Amino acid sequence: MNKRGAARLRRVTRLPLVSPRQWLRRVMFWFGALLVAVAAVGFAQAADAAGHLFQAITGPRPWIVFLLAPGGLALSVALTRRVFPGAQGSGIPQVIAALHMTDQAMVRRVLSLRIATGKILLTLLGLACGASIGREGPTVQVGAAIMQTLGQMLRLPRLDLQRALVLAGGAAGVSAAFNTPLAGVVFAIEELSHSFESRTSGTVFSAVIIGGVAVMGLAGNYTYFGHTSAELPFGPGWAAVAVCSVAGGLLGGGFSALLVRAAAGLPGRAGRFVMNHPVLFAVACGLVLAALGIASGGDTYGTGYAQARQLVEGASLPLAFPLLKLAATVVSYVSGIPGGIFAPSLAVGAGLGFWASHILPGAPAGAVVLLGMVGYFSGVVQAPITATVIVMEMTDNQRMTIPLMATAFLAFAVSRLICRRPLYGALARRFLMAQERQAAHGEG
User: Fold this and answer.
1) Chain-centre distance of CA 168, in angstroms?
2) Does 265 lie in the same domain as 183?
3) pTM of this prediction?
4) What's the pLDDT at 369?
5) Helices 92-99 and 159-178, packing angle to 10 deg
6) Are 385 and 188 in contact (CB under 8 A)?
7) How far does Cα 207 stand from its chain's mean position?
8) Is the pLDDT of residue 10 over 60?
9) In the chain, N or C: fewer CB atoms in 10 Å?
10) Residues with Cβ within 8 Å of residue 131, at least 6 apart in sequence
11) Which residues form the domain of 177?
């Protein structure tokens, strides 16, 4: 082959569609999405087993939760601080913070497989002792950590490609955790990146699609809350949109503002006590958690999926359930243990909708439950499109799309009046500042 032919061949092999290097990266991205799906399915099954274990222990002896919850939360906080630092909280703020980091050593520390493993184990520990937490946020961090590790193996030269991998891993984590592929894409755009760049769109789409197909193959094409045919005909029943928007926005925004304030530290002696004695504070949180569980008849323990599904399917729960579940979620989060707020927020929202259905007899109760769910969830995360898509996909109901979207956007506006910054963005900023201070202190 002459020099001209060799040069032409080199130019051809550098084209994106035929470049061996580009195809190697694509295959690694797809392989990573498969790994995220497998990890998410395994995590989901283990979380269910942890919840069943808690029920088996406390079922015949409800009082034992006053030993189990304080001891479990204290152990989780101790392990988080001494063995898995950086694993506390939801996991989504860590991923958002990693997307804004330029120091790759810091990214590797936040999204390491060791931290991801600790996140899984400690979330399971929290569920096994009755904490009101979810596994979806942790799954996002696990997915991002898996993809970040693959990126290290590929030695990607450009920062935007490394961020694309992290973004794709987080999106695949949402998709696999909820079995909602469309929600994974929307969440990546609306919450994780707050933008959509053409250079990363193919990576995100392919990771979510492959992860979604893998989850369907491993766990089946299911919806968490089954199928509901609830509808909200246009007319007087639309008053439910206003009620659920205002109530969801106020409660969700208040919940977010409380968590943001707690992340900054409590004032006065209480703050100094938490700072100096985090394990003892976790014990106190465990006692409060146990008391809330006894008061609710056990409904506030765990993710809340079972209670939300009951309400979606037309069953009833005590009217105090949403407030007790909200309180249990706050206590679980501020204790310092790893665990997410997605699932508990959906449960609180479903309870809020159930409550609203009692004062809105002109609206179908099933539809109001869905509106309450999307209203509160949008108020918490301030991501209305994600909230709409997740609830729509998890209930297999497209008839409610317009009422759900209207409720989500109105709740978002109300929530912004109380909590000016989105919850995950605010927590990510604090986490990033803490990491930078820690890095500067280490260098000093």
Assistant:
1) 15
2) no
3) 0.87
4) 92
5) 160
6) no
7) 18
8) no
9) C
10) 69, 72, 73, 289, 301, 302, 332, 335, 337, 339
11) 27-42+56-219
